[in-house]
Amino acid sequence: MFVGIDVGTSVVKAAAFDRGGRQLAVEARPVGLDLRGGAVEQDMAEVYGAVVAVLGALSARVPEPVELAGLTGQGDGLWLVDSAGRPVRPAISWLDGRARPLVDGWLADGTFEAVFRRTGGALFPGCPGPLLAWLDRHEPGALDRAAAAVACKDMVFQRLTGAASAVTDVSDASMPFLDPRTRSYDDGVLELLGLAGRRRLLAPVADPAAAGRARGDGLPAGTRLTNGPYDLPACALGAGVTAPGDGLLIVGTCLAALVATTSLDLGGEPAGMYVSTDRPGHRLRAMPAMVGTAALDWVLRTTGAGHAELDGLLASSPPGARGVRVLPYFAPSGERAPFVEPGLRAELLGVSLESTPADLVRATCEGIGHAARHCLAAAGLTGALAVCGGGTRSPAWTRLLADVLGRPLRVVEGEAGARGAVLAAAGRHGVPLDTAAWTEPAHTVTPDPSRAAYYDDRHEEHLRLLTTARNRARHG
């Protein structure tokens, strides 16, 4: 069998596939987030323990020899490790907002734009650059003790293989220090962020991706393991999104819009990022919005509803949610795509005593759909669109998204990230797999023409409301 490991923000998963791409089994374990006053951290020992646990449970369920394993996981954040890959301090999540004042300052003095023009990546509080700069000011001792500042999957790869030092890949290195033209670190960016003295903490970029042998934690000792792309490009690979112009929408904790491209445009409004892939010259134009299923989770909790009720609630409120509008920007660090606005917060509009919980839920789902449409347009979508992620498990929400986006959706079921991790590993080792069969969509959802026309008008209203909210966030 082939095993894909996906170390997510709140859930760690391992999936087994046969040679034809059929998903055989999945094991998952939740991992916690420690939220305190804008700080969002994770226990690395808990995360690594969850990886070992899901791999052991998967092997017990599908006792076939493991031919190959691939690794992916959450991107951004900051995972400080010693020379053995063990934690120096708790990991800082990509959801962390402590570096917001630094990003605000860089927005004001031109540093933010200067970095974007060099790398194609728009800084946000939870990406490695601001987090390193924050630690350099507030916890310099932690940086002094660390051997490397890596991404989540890089820590896991080093621990699973027992590698002598940390290594990363071009996708995780893309934000914010990689020059997308040379596929190597841009020391000028480190200087712009005041981090030239911390250059040693950046792990070497393995290009092609690093490969090693498992040392026996969860995976059988000797199993070939590849440190693949992080979760966004891994999902794109698992969904078959490789042709220029084709796109993927991941409806997860983060609402990520990705479009495959062979071009590189460092002009325009600084937002999103270019993610380098394993093929030089091929990139993903990524607009990974902070808004996502976390916004819906908050509204469901607030209204006392559960996820199992979502389809019924959406059916109980008409398109337009009886005038209720939600700007679903709930993240404490604001928004990062398709614009950067650290001070932006969610807004509920048009609510009255006659509004129902169903109206609030539907308005939130519609608001997330409009945010997705905004991101996909900014990313340059011209071709087919695939969708995956936890949000697509709701048939009603998937139909709503097709209507709001006004285009057919190729629905990818199962573990797209883990599937992409395996395909990346197969490419790295020259193992021939039928990529078309591995990436075949489960089905396609087409928009209703009348509802799509209705949402065309509502999208313009969403953009107007958003402009007002952004001005308020900037000027109070």
From TrEMBL:
GO terms for molecular function: kinase activity. Keywords: Kinase, Transferase. Gene3D superfamilies: 3.30.420.40. Signal peptide: none annotated. GO terms for biological process: carbohydrate metabolic process. Residues 276-426 form the Carbohydrate kinase FGGY C-terminal domain. Residues 1-205 form the Carbohydrate kinase FGGY N-terminal domain. It holds the Pfam family FGGY_C. It comes from the Bacteria. Belongs to the FGGY kinase family. This is Carbohydrate kinase. It comes from Streptomyces misionensis.
